[in-house]
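Quick check before the chapter quiz. The format below is the same one you will see on the exam, so make sure you can read both the input and the output lines.
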Amino acid sequence: MARTPQELAERTTRAAIYIRVSSEEQVREGYSLDAQEERLRAYVLSQGWTLAGVYRDEGFSGKNLSRAALQQMIADAKSGLFEAVLVWKLDRLSRRQLDVLHLIEDVFIPAKVGFRSATEAFDTTTPAGMAMVGMLAVFAQLERAQLIERVQLALGRRIDQRQWNGPAPYGYVIGKDGKLTPHPREAECVRRMFLEAVEGYGLRQIARRMTEGGAPAPVRSGRWYAGTIAKFLRNRTYLGEQPVRGEYLPNAHPALVSHAMFLQAQAAIEQRKTGARPRRGKSPYLLSGLLVCEECGRPMHAHRHRNRKRIFTYYYCDTARTTFQRCGAGYLRVEKLDELVTRMFLAGQFIREETTEESALSEAALSEVRARISRLVVAVEEGAVTVAEAKARLARLRSDAEALEVRIGASTRRAQTAQGMAMLGRLPELWTKASLAEKQAILRETVSRIEIPPSGIPRIYAFT
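Here is the expected output.
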């Protein structure tokens, strides 16, 4: 509620103190924040004012007004809880000229709230004072713009020299030249997790093995988590690339894994999401990595259950395991489903999936990527594109080409394997003589997935 000049004269001015710090060091130590408050409290006392409140924003930049304490102070000013706002310096309120003028003209003046700085002499109630505020705000904004320019120039120099900005990622340390160099033990852990992903281990399995193996974890708990493994397996820094504004500069530092290993790990992760994931050949269950619940689309795994006398093993989907509710066909005995799938597979009761179309699409995409690489080389020769710009784009195109080559190779191999089995006609004979690992290999090379509908009767999808 607005107050008349007579009412203001009859009472002591109530003043609000606003203080802000931006750096994490200041927030952690608390020195600058407390120093501002101590001096501003003394200023309030020297003016004979009454302290109406202290508004503290810890760790906030002055580039915008999205600060909790500032927004609360604005609301309190409009509610008439004080008649003056006191800051140590103008840039504590904001470093942007428009924001400062907005607060003074659109918030403080309509609410009949004066604005003071303890170190900069001006009075917002006079035209000259308002002009002074505008000039100080301009210089605050200029200082911030010059700071940003200096930081960007320094950042540009570091990028040109392939120096790393920020803390070193897991697996590396920052050398004296500012570049990343492999950390002896952590780098080996990175290579190990990529290798295990390619071998068919899941994210949780890799995390458990890393924890049990005593691998140094990137968190204080000392434990590895599936989310951490997933993040690391997608990190192109381990290819020797440096992220810069959404692009990746190649050959910025030593790579920890090859492009082939990186792409194989991505393919293994994606295959596990669909249930048709490669296995490492050590599972005691015949259908591991192939079963998919038709109802929810999640993989089905084998789990052991014990009662007082026996141990029973069932296949059921991840949804049932995590929600403890029935999903799809529910619990299926491992022995019975293995026997049923084997009988159907040997009898040729499966749905054929055409791999030739997939291969043709991949080959067409590969041809387009190779054409784009050729056009990029020509553009560099003609001077239409700089070498620096071309390097990042060329690295991305080469990565795409390698991924397509891996996909085409896998598709061709599966087609040849399935056609070879069909021509030989010796699958039943080979099956009876094969070990569990060999049977698993035959299924992985010829079967893309096995869907289990609520009826429990499997549908086998084989490559042709």
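If your answer matched, good. Residues 4-10, 275-281 have pLDDT under 50 and may be disordered.
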